[in-house]
Write a structure and sequence with these properties.
Layout: H1 4-18, E1 22-26, E2 32-35, E3 38-39, H2 46-52, E4 60-64, E5 69-74, H3 79-85, H4 91-97, E6 102-105, H5 109-118, E7 123-124, H6 131-141, H7 154-165, H8 169-192, H9 199-212, E8 216-217, E9 222-224, E10 244-249, E11 251-252, E12 261-266, H10 273-292, H11 299-316, H12 324-330, H13 357-361, E13 387-390, E14 393-395, H14 398-406, H15 416-420, E15 427-429, E16 432-436, E17 441-443, H16 452-458
Parallel strand pairs: 1-7, 5-6
Antiparallel strand pairs: 1-4, 2-3, 4-5, 8-11, 9-10, 10-12, 13-16, 14-15, 16-17
Length: about 450
């Protein structure tokens, strides 16, 4: 835990933003794999963790703004638990460490909630992504679980997003820890991979790094020779000389903060001329974003500027044609870059996405539903303290190219015959984590290799 005063002050800020009501924030429960006592690794709900700091299953936090009281509901450990788990602190002790004076047994929660309803108190809820929490809250508050979302509070959601979007220096320090572990995961992969290995052998080495620091991965590791498949979670391929690897992975620190970086490197440690050429364009895209990000700029504008760099590069290489600005406006570039440039980062790898992707990443304007742009998760004006990713990519996706060509799509901008020469190339992306400062932005963590010659130097056998 980060400290009693941290959690106390976070709750005080939320109280002042809302002014009234009773906020109920459930933590997560254990999730059984196949029977009750054989569970998946536990991940606490990030909003509960942010305000209460307790990385323990089956708790509910309550902030009664009207009466200036706070509660933790939970079921304390029994003797049977202690036999299997060893001596345990009382949950009341953990609650006190989070600055919460009132600990109540979970068996009393339904009675507590019923009283709130009887007193016609304003109960403030956030969306839930786990069915057990939907059922718990619905039962306690007398709600139809199939209509739970109708009872969530937009004011509460927006207040949480506004608060959590701006990271404190303490949070930035925690994020840097996660980013530096993530860096080590990437360097380990570069030094481990060699022709003839299975992808899963390298993944084992990558994820061991996170465990070495008593952490975990912040999301499902992507390590693939098929980089044109954006989120490829299979690891059963044999990597061969000449293959280009895309590694997208991240560490989660002990306090729950996430890293998220992507690199692209050749199995044999030496980029071919074709790989160097496309990788150089990829880094041009990344550096354009690096150059632009600062307080006051809309991240959608950064995305579109990066798309223009890509388009101009593809025109230069003969894969596209026509006017670059018009091609980007039409969305023709998305055949190579069909995703967004980045997303918010924090206690979730896509921070607070469970509260609503558009509410977190957008403001008052609607999401653009053009192919490629519709996948942009961050399109709001950047502010000091925002932590986010920059993640351009270049992909040659045969199925997409063939379908667009058959439909006669963007014939005025795309040189399909030339693009088809890159079938089998795969894809590549490069991602770093950034914080907005008072007058610009800073990449988090220790220096990360970016240029192909730097990566080749690391990969020398």
């Amino acid at each position: 835990m980060l400290g009693r005063e941290i959690y106390f002050q976070r709750r005080e800020v939320l109280k002042k933003k809302l002014g009234k009501g009773v906020v109920i924030l459930p933590g997560n429960n254990e999730s059984p794999r196949n029977y009750k006592d054989n569970c998946y690794s536990f991940d606490q709900d990030s909003t509960f963790l942010y305000y209460f700091g307790m990385d323990i299953p089956s708790l509910v936090g309550v902030i009664d703004i009207d009466n200036n009281k706070e509660y933790i509901f939970g079921t304390d450990f029994t003797l049977d638990d202690i036999v299997w788990m060893g001596e345990q602190k009382l949950l009341k002790s953990y609650a006190e460490e989070a600055g919460v004076e009132n600990f109540i047994e979970m068996s009393e929660f339904e009675k507590f909630a019923a009283q709130l309803k009887a007193d016609k108190r304003e109960v403030l809820l956030i969306p839930q992504y786990k069915a057990d929490n939907v059922m718990k809250l619905s039962k306690a508050l007398g709600l139809d679980p199939f209509k739970y979302d109708e009872h969530t509070s937009l004011d509460l959601i927006k207040a949480i997003i506004e608060q959590r979007n701006v990271k404190s220096q303490l949070e930035i320090d925690e994020l840097e820890k996660a980013v530096n572990i993530t860096k080590e995961m990437h360097l380990t992969a570069m030094k481990t991979v060699k022709a003839g290995m299975k992808e899963y052998e390298v993944v084992a080495a990558i994820e061991a790094v996170a465990k070495k620091y008593y952490g975990s991965t912040s999301f499902f590791t992507i390590f693939t020779k098929n980089g044109h498949i954006l989120h490829n979670h299979g690891y059963d391929n044999t990597v061969e000389d000449g293959d280009m690897i895309v590694l997208d992975c991240g560490a989660k620190s002990r306090e729950g903060y996430c890293g998220d970086m992507t690199t692209a490197f050749p199995v044999n440690g030496k980029y071919s001329d074709k790989q160097k050429d496309m990788y150089s364009l990829l880094i041009e895209m990344f550096e354009k974003a690096e150059e632009m990000v600062r307080p006051g700029i809309n991240y959608k504008d950064v995305h579109l500027a990066v798309a223009k760099v890509l388009t101009e590069g593809m025109i230069k290489r003969g894969l596209m044609k026509g006017n670059a600005d018009e091609a980007v406006k039409a969305g023709a570039h998305a055949v190579f870059f069909p995703h967004g440039l980045g997303h918010m980062l924090g206690l979730d790898v896509h921070d607070m996405e469970n509260l609503g992707e558009d509410l977190v990443g957008y403001e008052s304007f609607p999401r653009d539903m053009q192919f490629g742009l519709k996948s942009l998760r961050l399109a709001r004006v950047l502010k000091e303290g925002y932590v986010f990713t920059i993640e351009p990519g270049i992909y040659f996706i045969p199925e997409l190219v063939k379908r667009w060509k058959a439909a006669g799509k963007f014939m005025e901008y795309l040189n399909y015959e030339k693009i088809e020469e890159y079938f089998g190339f795969g894809g590549m992306r490069y991602e770093g984590d950034f914080v907005i400062t008072a007058d610009g932005a800073r990449r988090l963590g220790d220096k990360m290799p970016k240029y192909y010659n730097e990566i080749e130097e690391i990969m020398k056998k």
